[in-house]
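Team,

Forwarding the record for the chain on the shared tracking sheet. I've put the sequence and predicted structure together so nobody has to dig through attachments.
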Amino acid sequence: MSDSTMTSTTPEKRANGPGDADGRPALPAPRPFRALFLFLSGLFLFSCLDTITKYLVMHYNVPMVMAIRYVVNLVLMVAILGPTQGRQFVETRRTGLVLLRALFLTFASLAFGMALQRLPVAETTAINFVAPMLVVLVAGPLLHERIGLLGWAAAVTGFAGVLIIVRPGGGLELGGVAWVLSAAVANAAYQLMSRLLVSTERTLALLFYTVLVGAICFSAGLPWYLTGDPPSLLEAFLFLAIGIIGGLSHLLYTAAYRYAPASLLAPTTYLQMLWAALLGWLVFDHVPDALSILGIGVVASSG
């Protein structure tokens, strides 16, 4: 892939060293295969995270689950990486945008968790793929990335697949659909800002502020929604797991944007639906109906 496809809203420098003269981290040369490997690994972990989250929100309220997830993530990150990477956590050039990006993901996490309480994993994941369609639609005018006819065709086809899934009479709860659509919009903003900020911010700083903002927002109300019986040993393990998996998945996801444009990576996220459907069947014994499978297939084929 040529450098001409790697444009953004800020000047970038392909460098041989750790950064440029004013201290910005240099953006590496395009490496689409490395980017896809990182991205798809992160997406598989996202599917595992969503499946565990659905199991937990069936027994606990969503803000509580999210609070524990983000707090565990934050504690582990600071404990493991803090002693050697402390300054890289907090140094940013566009702090306001970094915090805004984190708020988008915080809301997306809440909305997606609310949707998982009401909808199966496969259908929730499929509807959430309105997000990469939105990324494709706005990456051109906002990030000055070349989309092309194939990208537009994929976006339109994917949107048609989502309409099949959420069709009237499909049996999906309207409130759950509204929550997942809200999550998709917030997730699209998060993806676009990820690409926008990687040219000036370090991956660890982006991840740290994402975790920090989520932990603060969800923990603020913890005394009011910390209810229910103490978790079992299995549930305690799962609470720990979502903190670990959540951090690792977003680290891989964010790092991928250093090697490829958002318009290349976004369509590949459709492969996550295959993993979501498989895990939903294995864990919850849920198989989508025929038309929903058709809609999921249409969305996947567009990717």
